[in-house]
Amino acid sequence: MAEKKTSRIPEILVRHEKDVLEDWLREQMAATTLRKGLMPEAELRRQSDEFLTLFITGCRSGSLADITTSEWAPVRDFLAGTSRSRVTLGFSPSETASFVFSLKQPLFARLREELAKDAAALAEEMWAATVLLDKLGLHTTEVFQQGREEVIKRQQLELLELSTPVVKIWEGILVLPLIGTLDSARTQVVMENLLQNIVDTGSDIAIIDITGVPTVDTLVAQHLLKTVSAAKLMGAQCIISGIRPQIAQTMVHLGVAFGDVVTKASLFDALAFAFRQIGVVISKQQTRS
Amino acid sequence: MDRIPILKLGDFLLVTIQVDMHDRLVMTLQDDLTARVVQDKATGVLIDISSLEMVDSFIGRMLGNIAAMTRVLGAEAVVVGMRPAVAITIVELGLSLHDVRTALNVDKGMEMLRTLVEAPAGEDGHERHEK
Amino acid sequence: MSVTKSEVLRLQASEDIVRVRQAVRAWMVERGFSLVDQTKMVTAASELARNAVDHAGGGIVRMEALVDGGRSGIRLVFEDHGPGIPDMALAMQDGFSTVGGLGLGLGGAKRLANEFAIHSQPGEGTRVAVTRWR
Fold this sequence. Notes:
Chain A is of the alpha/beta class. Chain A contains 11 helices and 5 strands, in the order αααααααββαβαβαβα.
């Protein structure tokens, strides 16, 4: 096993901390001249200063090769925080990552100064430094990605609520017209929403119409069936309408057991069924001659 | 020892479960309810679980037992107010409850009981006690 | 993956089953789990806690809050020094019960959780871990 040598990076950084900070800030400001005003210089200075302090501590206490250990947690957390705040300020992921990457130049300059006489050590330290800063830079990108994904997820849920309204079509009858492709997650949310609607409106029957759904896979079919069972447990009835011949074939082929779930080919049939269930008769008004 | 209160509403008994029940309380309820059906000559039992945030297999079994026992005693039982999250969980858990009548709320539950009780004797093959 | 919070609850009497339900509920509310997820986990906890109390002579449950990458989760590890499970396949089957229960405990808990792991040694005890992710 290779002898664990202490890196000289933390000690060199401490000695040249002020200069490194100034050089680093200059690098950052130069890179962001196109997007002036995204962050005031004072704030940039404060963030850079804090990062440098945490970075030095991390280098001292932790291994330079592994940033996932607890010694690097303060640095990771700090970067995660700055990454998230930069998302909201409008920074691009590259701009956020270059916060870390731009530290390389000032650091390498000092390493060259201090280790001029020892080429081997210089090469080793520069390599260690670049690998370390790459990892930290990538960490900001990952956090950035996660932040974006969370926004997308939230927006998807909101869109979901807007696009799948539950309609009270008659006293005691709800209709849920599903449109578009259903995925497992979406179906679950929609179904939970339907059940809550049943309680809120005190409806006896809910019709899930899948006329507008091109394909249904086993997972989605299972969610639909579970919803029907759940509604029955609650004391309401759930029926499914608008099952296309292709979907019916797929369901049978996949072995999905519809059991005693009431299914109708069309919403029309489902409505007629629902009216009968609640004892409502629709009759034509006699025209007076 | 704490007990779940049982109210008499005409010929029906109403039970509103509002606490997180420990197992002994569940069994006490089962016993109390059965005793009261006989004692009060009740023809219907309404169990309101709208405050229950969870129904596990133990509570599910109690509900099934109550339904079965009241039926044997010539009465009908209806469980009302099951929350959607609870229903979804019960389905996932695999709890059947197929022999337990349910209704969305107390009003519908009462309506159901009245319909069931007014049905002609022996409709579902059970003897009815003479009042 | 790391454990950010941990707590051990003892399981000796049926009151403890209620306490575990409430603790699980509180932890999940704190961590922003959906109502359905909460209910599923609380129910699974109730089943497994009852197994420990009724069939194993008592035990403990270790509640853990997990963080893995961007997602957060909750894990419940039930441990007992009871008789153990001689036939795992049979025990996991719905409807199988050695004590007149409904026999949904293990299979049910598995269905209600995202992750399920069980280890049992007859004569030594059983450990069941269930995890739900947000």
